Amino acid sequence: MISWANFFRKVAILASAALICLPGCAAHQVAQPAGSATPPGFTFVVFPVDNLTGAYAPTREFGKAWLSKLQEFEIPLITDATREKILTEHRIRSVSGVDSVSAKAFREEAGAGAIFITSLEYYREMYPPKLAVTVRVVSTEETPRILWMDSVGMAGDDAPGLLDLGLIKDYETLQELALRHLADSFGNWLDEQRRYVSDGAVERRFSPKLMYNQSPMREAEKATVAVVPLYNASQRKRSGEIMQLHFIRQLLATGSVEPIEPGVVREKMLSSRMIMREGISARDVDILTYILGADYVLSGTVFDYYDPQGGNGTPVVDFTTLLMRKSDRKVVFKSKSSNMGTDGVYFFDRGKQNNAAVMAEEMARSVVLNMVRAR
Q1: Is the pTM of this model over 0.85?
Q2: pLDDT per residue over 174-218, tens digit each?
Q3: 123 and 184 part of one domain
Q4: Is the peptide bond before 128 cis (omega within 30 degrees of 0)?
Q5: In terms of domains, do 103 and 237 share one?
Q6: Which residue has the higher pLDDT, 217 or 358?
Q7: Which residue of 14, 98, 153, 327 has the fewest CB atoms within a 10 Å radius of its CB?
Q8: What contacts 338, CB < 8 A, 6 or more positions away?
């Protein structure tokens, strides 16, 4: 009798654990691409992958894997040889964005209607593998616009599940899941020929810790925002540009705000010889809003952006934001956000975040929702 009691007790424990881990075990299930409808007259260019990791990453191999996913949609793509020829002839060195020069070159010489910009934020092949990447499609109009944008962050130990059956030990498997997610998102936009917008509530733990809000964009029908790279006061290279991308994606997803393509922002800042040593000034805002035609300028400071190497450690993201309005040069929104991957985790590591990119995305979304939330 005692042995049977122990047996049923173990079964009950395992059943309870299965119920707890079930959502995590299903976290990596991704549907197939929705279809291959092509916007009329659109030919695409896929730029080389921009390495934001701060270290070596196999960007060429990653770019080929992403290209193979795009080829499944049977969309017109400019060949690599044509792309490299135009990049070389026009001395286009930056592949982190699309400015007026690169847009004109590919529009007139290759007949391209849009350009894929791929930013690799994090890459680790060793167990547990980890990957974070952002992709956007930018038009080649005289003033380039962001047409679609999405990002994904995954780690092999995100959802270990019952008896660690949900662990992903192979990097190639993780990369396939991440690229499939991006392909699905792009396919949705391609089918509907509209922006792919994600919805859903933001977890309370990712809300700003401090906030000053004058409801800046709540009454505007279509506000235009220039997001500049946040000032990097952290140890992570290019973390200011990483947070810039997270905010641009979330602003685009609102549907009521039009963020300016960062390649255009970079071009205008360089042409104006603008150097923001420790953040943005009122004079910088005057110049940017004038030459970009923006209603607002969003800036800030990244104090910490830590993504642990290996399976041990806890990611940390800490930043401030500052939104200034063109019409009266006033600061209309300020916030302070700081989170660790273990925030709100009390037992069995349920809810723990292993990827700083995922955490930063949620934190940026919470800030943006507070900026544009209806009265």
Answers
A1: no
A2: 999 999 999 999 998 888 753 434 445 677 788 888 888 876 676
A3: yes
A4: yes
A5: no
A6: 358
A7: 327
A8: 209, 303, 304, 316, 317, 318, 319
